């Protein structure tokens, strides 16, 4: 994963099995961690690398990493010290997203994708204490692997979740969700979600089925 800091345009983060930081737009990198994976025994398909990173939009240096072999770490000092925070989550599953909240400093979301392990439960979690404790949300998602989660740009109770079967929306902070599929092909894998706050739009990146854009105004009205 590659990440540009929202706090300083010159700060660039890069993930291998370690966390690397640059203060010079990537012209030079410094390794800021040891191995943040389990360093698994390799087979035909190598793994043991970081798969996702997120820096808090609220606090510079508060950064989370997730790996393809199931580890999640947090640093609160820009990478000088790290804590493993996945001890209360399912083990060994691909961390498809870790997302630091823009509404509360201590809040973080995680999605786990287990299809590589023949594990197809929808696994989405939220923590309000930097990953010390976790709560599974929403529990009414169908039996589909989860790829991504994003917050709404204006309402902390609205969450957008992309799975191998489509796009889902929660209007109540993850207590429940509904499918948002009008205008999308049937059972489309949503692999990435971007939010354009200026135009108040959501952008979907799918698996082989192009890009899709929609306005967020009606969803936001429904949540009020």
Quick overview:
The chain is mostly beta strands and about 220 residues long. It is about 5% helix and about 40% strand.
Task: Spell out the blueprint of helices and strands.
Blueprint: E1 2-4, E2 12-15, E3 19-22, E4 30-31, E5 50-55, E6 63-67, E7 72-75, E8 83-84, E9 94-100, E10 108-113, E11 123-127, E12 135-136, E13 146-151, E14 159-163, E15 166-170, E16 178-179, E17 190-196, E18 201-206, E19 211-215, H1 217-222
Give a written overview of the molecule.
With 224 residues, this protein is mainly β. Helix content is 3%, strand content 38%. The chain is built from one helix and 19 strands. It has one helix at 217-222, and strands spanning 2-4, 12-15, 19-22, 30-31, 50-55, 63-67, 72-75, 83-84, 94-100, 108-113, 123-127, 135-136, 146-151, 159-163, 166-170, 178-179, 190-196, 201-206, 211-215. It has a four-stranded antiparallel β-sheet with strand order 1-2-3-4, with no helix packed on it. A hairpin with a 7-residue loop joins strand 13 (146-151) and strand 14 (159-163). It is globular, with a radius of gyration of 17 Å. The N and C termini lie far apart (35 Å). The model has no long low-confidence stretch (mean pLDDT 95).
């Amino acid at each position: 994963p590659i990440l540009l800091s929202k706090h300083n345009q010159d700060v660039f983060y890069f993930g291998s099995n370690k966390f690397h930081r640059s203060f010079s737009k990537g012209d030079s990198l410094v390794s800021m961690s040891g191995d943040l994976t389990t360093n698994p025994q390799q087979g035909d398909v190598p793994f043991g690398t970081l798969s996702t990173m997120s820096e808090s939009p609220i606090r510079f240096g508060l950064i989370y990493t997730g790996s393809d072999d199931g580890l999640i770490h947090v640093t609160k000092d820009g990478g000088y010290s790290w804590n493993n925070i996945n001890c209360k989550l399912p083990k060994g599953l691909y961390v498809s997203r870790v997302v630091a909240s823009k509404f509360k400093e201590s809040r973080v979301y995680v999605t786990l994708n287990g299809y590589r392990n023949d594990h197809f439960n929808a696994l989405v979690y939220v923590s309000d204490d930097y990953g010390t404790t976790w709560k599974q949300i929403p529990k009414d998602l169908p039996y589909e692997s989860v790829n991504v989660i994003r917050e709404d740009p204006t309402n902390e109770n609205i969450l957008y979740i992309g799975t191998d079967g489509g796009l889902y929306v929660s209007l109540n902070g993850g207590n429940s969700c509904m499918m948002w599929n009008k205008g999308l092909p049937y059972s489309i894998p949503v692999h990435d979600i971007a939010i354009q706050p200026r135009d108040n739009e959501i952008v979907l990146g799918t698996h082989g089925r192009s890009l899709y854009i929609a306005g967020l105004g009606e969803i936001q009205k429904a949540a009020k």
